[in-house]
Amino acid sequence: MAGMPTLAQLRALQAIAQEGLTYTRDPFDLTRFARLRDLTAELLAEQTGQAPATVTGLLRVEEGYLTPKVDVRAVVLNAASEVLLTRERSDGAWSLPGGWADPGESPTQIAVREVREETGRAVRATRLLAVMDKAQHPHPPDLWAVYKLFVQCDLTGAEGAAHTENLETLASAFFPVDALPPLSLPRNLPEQVRRVVALARDPHSAVHCD
Q1: How far lies 129's CA from each of 39, 74, 97, 153, 164, in Å?
Q2: Which one of 7, 90, 109, 195 is CB 3.0 to 4.6 Å from 105, fit for a cystine?
Q3: Burial group, residue 58, by CB count within 10 angstroms (0-12, 13-18, 19+)
Q4: What is the distance between the alpha carbons of residues 90 and 87, in angstroms, rounded to a whole number?
Q5: Residue 22 or residue 86, greater confidence
Q6: Strand order of the sheet with strand 94-95?
Q7: What percent of the chain is predicted at pLDDT more than 90?
Q8: Which element (helix H / strand E) includes 206?
Q9: pLDDT in tens, 129-151
Q10: Are 96 and 106 in contact (CB under 8 A)?
Q11: Which secondary structure element, helix H or strand E, spans residue 17, and what is its range?
Q12: How far from the centroid of its chain's Cα atoms is residue 62's Cα?
């Protein structure tokens, strides 16, 4: 649609609405900011293909100063420098183990836990490889602004451990970086996986940051 605002512009409007709802005390302004939030939700629904009621509900539960969400991904290589991927139940495609950051856990703790829960393998987090702003990469449209943290993890248990059945993933396996399976593009892009694997292979590499 010509003249349709971009996701970046809509997120800026969402931030203005949420900050207004957080800091203003005038009842009339509270009503105006609430209306701005709901109008923004309707436009975000159009951009992302989600149901308007769903987006409105998600935005209404957000409180306080608006900041990006954090997605933590574990980068696990085997002895052949193949990368560990999990097959997502939601779309049947593959991704690095990981997910949203939970309060009360550090990024390294999240990475270790996600690998254990999604693959059944035991790992030890060793270093941060990259911090990527999802908006700087060609992911499908997303409701949220997201920072993606990629944490290198070393296997401490059996490389070929049996996949642990869970609610999020269907399978897990190691893949050569030049023969990746179809990836879950909302979660990770082929060029991102190749970049972080290259960083993990080089023990002297600096942290990549968008």
Answers
A1: 38, 10, 15, 10, 26
A2: 109
A3: middle
A4: 9
A5: 86
A6: 94-95, 83-88, 169-175
A7: 60
A8: none
A9: 999 999 999 999 888 889 999 99
A10: no
A11: helix 7-23
A12: 18
Specify the pLDDT at position 111: 98
Residue indicated by tokens 């996600």: 114
Minimal CA–CA distance to 100: which of 69, 63, 145?
69
Euclidean distance between CA atoms 152 and 189, whole angstroms: 17
Cα–Cα distance for residue pair 47/135, rounded to 1 Å: 14
Taking each continuous run of H as one helix and of E as one strand, the counts in the chain are 5, 8
User: How far is 196 from 59, CA to CA, in rounded Å?
Assistant: 32
State the DSSP code for 135: G
- Are 140 and 188 in contact by the 8 Å Cβ rule? The answer is no
Strands 83-88 and 169-175: antiparallel
Using one digit for the tens of pLDDT, what is the confidence trace for 78-99? 999 999 999 999 999 999 999 9
Q: What share of the chain is helix, strand, coil (3-state, %, to 5)?
A: 35, 25, 40
Q: Is 183 helix (H, G, I), strand (E, B) or coil?
A: strand
What would the two tokens of residue 146 be?
A: 């997201």
Contacts of 192 (CB under 8 A, 6+ apart): 132, 137, 148, 150
The identity of residue 189, as a single letter, is L
Q: pTM, whole model, 2 decimals?
A: 0.78
Beta-strand ranges (E) seen in the chain are 69-76, 83-88, 94-95, 98-100, 123-133, 146-155, 169-175, 208-209
